[in-house]
């Protein structure tokens, strides 16, 4: 069955349908990872987006029960050059087509994903629609122009109630702005006693849980659309050691008086080099974000830049000059991606132990 991908600028791609027959709209982005499509499609940070994979063959090792980053995927569509209908892997339980039919997610294959990627790189992210092959192009484009992108993605993906993931180690309150399960797995591996809380949690509610440390998770969308999180961070800063990832990094920056802005096409992939300024060490990192902290907004704050992206010089890490708190823009849990920066979780726990021992706070 034929299917169209129509962009708001009038570009039309005609391809082959797979997955659900649902017509869906969203911001069209691209990811450059060669593997890890299951983790990508289940990453809550893609909420409401149509994800293009630049690697040409997707689905060859199927879908399994273990590699999800959330139980329910929140993407609005998948765009690939070629999908594999007969995966070969001992863990595979579904083909990507079968899984998308179950989860009601539309996909389109057989299009020139290189051309699509170059359009996004040239013009920036665009709104797009995955629709049937006989849909009226004019009607779809008019609808795209009239439709505003959602601003409540964090509300959609965050847990509604707090829940524990018990351990015998340090008590970590993990604020869920669209948390990937990889973050939870890394803390569980270190035997942390974790309490996952919703994005609406207040500073008072966090402190009532008597945490040894606070972790701010990744998540989708514009950090300025989550003002209650900025207020909460201001209420706990300097009282408990803090570690933030991705959206958590951006919210931490905003809470400290820095500014953020939307990127032209974002960083989405598993091979982004990041330099640690204090040591000169370069890590290859996994990234997924469309907003960034403005470097020129840091100078009048109590923050210090710790990491930069080597590809474009953007801010990739921050720390507070006076209290135990640091954040990174990339994903040290690396799901998918290299594990170069996995030690940041140990750095966080070491910070907690030092704070307990010396009573810094």
TrEMBL record:
<comment type="pathway">
    <text>Amino-acid biosynthesis; L-arginine biosynthesis; carbamoyl phosphate from bicarbonate: step 1/1.</text>
</comment>
<protein>
    <recommendedName>
        <fullName>Carbamoyl phosphate synthase small chain</fullName>
        <ecNumber>6.3.5.5</ecNumber>
    </recommendedName>
</protein>
<dbReference type="GO" id="GO:0004088">
    <property type="term" value="F:carbamoyl-phosphate synthase (glutamine-hydrolyzing) activity"/>
</dbReference>
<feature type="domain" description="Carbamoyl-phosphate synthase small subunit N-terminal">
    <location>
        <begin position="1"/>
        <end position="131"/>
    </location>
</feature>
<feature type="binding site">
    <location>
        <position position="250"/>
    </location>
    <ligand>
        <name>L-glutamine</name>
    </ligand>
</feature>
<dbReference type="GO" id="GO:0006526">
    <property type="term" value="P:L-arginine biosynthetic process"/>
</dbReference>
<feature type="region of interest" description="CPSase">
    <location>
        <begin position="1"/>
        <end position="170"/>
    </location>
</feature>
<dbReference type="Pfam" id="PF00117">
    <property type="entry name" value="GATase"/>
</dbReference>
<feature type="binding site">
    <location>
        <position position="221"/>
    </location>
    <ligand>
        <name>L-glutamine</name>
    </ligand>
</feature>
<dbReference type="InterPro" id="IPR035686">
    <property type="entry name" value="CPSase_GATase1"/>
</dbReference>
<keyword id="KW-0315">Glutamine amidotransferase</keyword>
<feature type="binding site">
    <location>
        <position position="288"/>
    </location>
    <ligand>
        <name>L-glutamine</name>
    </ligand>
</feature>
<dbReference type="GO" id="GO:0005524">
    <property type="term" value="F:ATP binding"/>
</dbReference>
<dbReference type="Pfam" id="PF00988">
    <property type="entry name" value="CPSase_sm_chain"/>
</dbReference>
<feature type="active site" description="Nucleophile">
    <location>
        <position position="246"/>
    </location>
</feature>
<keyword id="KW-0436">Ligase</keyword>
<comment type="similarity">
    <text>Belongs to the CarA family.</text>
</comment>
<dbReference type="InterPro" id="IPR036480">
    <property type="entry name" value="CarbP_synth_ssu_N_sf"/>
</dbReference>
<dbReference type="InterPro" id="IPR017926">
    <property type="entry name" value="GATASE"/>
</dbReference>
<keyword id="KW-0028">Amino-acid biosynthesis</keyword>
<keyword id="KW-0055">Arginine biosynthesis</keyword>
<dbReference type="InterPro" id="IPR029062">
    <property type="entry name" value="Class_I_gatase-like"/>
</dbReference>
<comment type="subunit">
    <text>Composed of two chains; the small (or glutamine) chain promotes the hydrolysis of glutamine to ammonia, which is used by the large (or ammonia) chain to synthesize carbamoyl phosphate. Tetramer of heterodimers (alpha,beta)4.</text>
</comment>
<feature type="binding site">
    <location>
        <position position="290"/>
    </location>
    <ligand>
        <name>L-glutamine</name>
    </ligand>
</feature>
<feature type="binding site">
    <location>
        <position position="219"/>
    </location>
    <ligand>
        <name>L-glutamine</name>
    </ligand>
</feature>
<keyword id="KW-0665">Pyrimidine biosynthesis</keyword>
<comment type="function">
    <text>Small subunit of the glutamine-dependent carbamoyl phosphate synthetase (CPSase). CPSase catalyzes the formation of carbamoyl phosphate from the ammonia moiety of glutamine, carbonate, and phosphate donated by ATP, constituting the first step of 2 biosynthetic pathways, one leading to arginine and/or urea and the other to pyrimidine nucleotides. The small subunit (glutamine amidotransferase) binds and cleaves glutamine to supply the large subunit with the substrate ammonia.</text>
</comment>
<feature type="binding site">
    <location>
        <position position="291"/>
    </location>
    <ligand>
        <name>L-glutamine</name>
    </ligand>
</feature>
<keyword id="KW-0547">Nucleotide-binding</keyword>
<dbReference type="GO" id="GO:0006541">
    <property type="term" value="P:glutamine metabolic process"/>
</dbReference>
<dbReference type="InterPro" id="IPR002474">
    <property type="entry name" value="CarbamoylP_synth_ssu_N"/>
</dbReference>
<comment type="pathway">
    <text>Pyrimidine metabolism; UMP biosynthesis via de novo pathway; (S)-dihydroorotate from bicarbonate: step 1/3.</text>
</comment>
<feature type="active site">
    <location>
        <position position="333"/>
    </location>
</feature>
<keyword id="KW-0067">ATP-binding</keyword>
<dbReference type="InterPro" id="IPR006274">
    <property type="entry name" value="CarbamoylP_synth_ssu"/>
</dbReference>
<dbReference type="GO" id="GO:0044205">
    <property type="term" value="P:'de novo' UMP biosynthetic process"/>
</dbReference>
<feature type="binding site">
    <location>
        <position position="45"/>
    </location>
    <ligand>
        <name>L-glutamine</name>
    </ligand>
</feature>
<dbReference type="InterPro" id="IPR050472">
    <property type="entry name" value="Anth_synth/Amidotransfase"/>
</dbReference>
<feature type="active site">
    <location>
        <position position="331"/>
    </location>
</feature>
<dbReference type="GO" id="GO:0004359">
    <property type="term" value="F:glutaminase activity"/>
</dbReference>
<dbReference type="GO" id="GO:0006207">
    <property type="term" value="P:'de novo' pyrimidine nucleobase biosynthetic process"/>
</dbReference>
<feature type="binding site">
    <location>
        <position position="247"/>
    </location>
    <ligand>
        <name>L-glutamine</name>
    </ligand>
</feature>
């Amino acid at each position: 069955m034929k299917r169209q991908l129509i962009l708001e600028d009038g570009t039309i791609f005609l391809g082959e349908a797979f997955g659900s027959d649902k017509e869906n709209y969203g911001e069209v982005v691209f990811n450059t990872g060669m593997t890890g499509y299951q983790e990508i499609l289940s990453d809550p940070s893609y909420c409401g987006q149509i994800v293009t994979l630049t690697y040409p063959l997707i689905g060859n090792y199927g879908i399994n029960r273990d590699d999800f980053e959330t139980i329910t995927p929140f993407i609005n569509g998948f765009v690939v050059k070629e999908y594999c209908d007969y995966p070969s892997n001992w863990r595979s339980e579904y083909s990507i087509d079968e899984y998308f039919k179950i989860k009601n997610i539309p996909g389109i294959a057989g299009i020139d994903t290189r051309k699509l990627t170059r359009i996004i790189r040239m013009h920036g992210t665009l709104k797009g629609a995955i629709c049937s092959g006989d849909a009226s192009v004019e009607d779809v484009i008019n609808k795209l122009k009239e439709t505003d992108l959602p601003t409540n993605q964090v509300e959609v993906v965050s847990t509604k109630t707090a829940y524990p993931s018990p351990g015998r180690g340090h008590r970590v309150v993990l604020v869920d702005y669209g948390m990937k399960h990889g973050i939870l797995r890394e803390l569980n591996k270190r035997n942390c006693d974790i309490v996952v809380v919703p994005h609406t949690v207040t500073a008072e509610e966090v402190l009532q849980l008597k945490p040894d440390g606070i972790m701010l998770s990744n998540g989708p969308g514009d950090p300025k659309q989550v003002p209650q999180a900025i207020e909460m961070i201001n209420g706990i800063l300097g009282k408990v050691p803090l570690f933030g990832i991705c959206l958590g990094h951006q919210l931490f920056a905003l809470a400290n008086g820095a500014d953020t802005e939307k990127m032209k096409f974002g960083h989405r992939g598993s091979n982004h080099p990041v330099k640690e300024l204090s040591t000169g060490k370069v890590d290859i990192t996994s990234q997924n974000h469309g907003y960034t902290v403005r470097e020129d907004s840091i100078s009048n704050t109590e923050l210090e830049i710790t990491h930069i992206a080597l590809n474009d010089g953007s801010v990739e890490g921050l720390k507070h000059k006076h209290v135990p708190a640091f954040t990174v823009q990339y994903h040290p849990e690396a799901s998918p991606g290299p594990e170069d920066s996995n030690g940041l979780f140990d750095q966080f726990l070491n910070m907690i132990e030092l704070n307990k021992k010396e009573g810094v706070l």
